[in-house]
Amino acid sequence: MIERNFVLNGDGVIAIDLDDCVTWHSDQFHIDQQAEAIIGAVNSYTEFSPSRNGIHIFAFGSLPNASRRNDAARTKSTLSNNT
Questions:
Q1: Which residue ranges make up each domain of the chain?
Q2: Residue 56: other Cβ atoms inside 10 A
Q3: DSSP assignment letter at 34
Q4: How far apart are CA 46 and CA 6, in angstroms?
Q5: Integer CA distances (angstroms), 49 to 4, 11, 17, in order
Q6: Which region holds residue 67: left if phi is over 0, alpha if psi is between -120 and 50, else beta?
Q7: What are the tens digits of pLDDT across the range 32-44?
Q8: How far apart are CA 71 and CA 3, in angstroms?
């Protein structure tokens, strides 16, 4: 397997990390309704997390200075080593 690393350095690209929103049955997957809504609203490059149980969305934008974390999603302005 090829390991990918992407570093966000505050240059206008953000990441949204949706955890535990994907379930698998053999080779077919289901993304929960809340995650589907977020993916549709952001409408940007989206990939499975390395665990395949979550979703990463990358988009152009900036993040607020307030808290960027909640139970459903984490937004990140810095990201390295597939976290």
A1: 13-76
A2: 18
A3: H
A4: 14
A5: 11, 22, 8
A6: beta
A7: 999 999 999 999 9
A8: 27
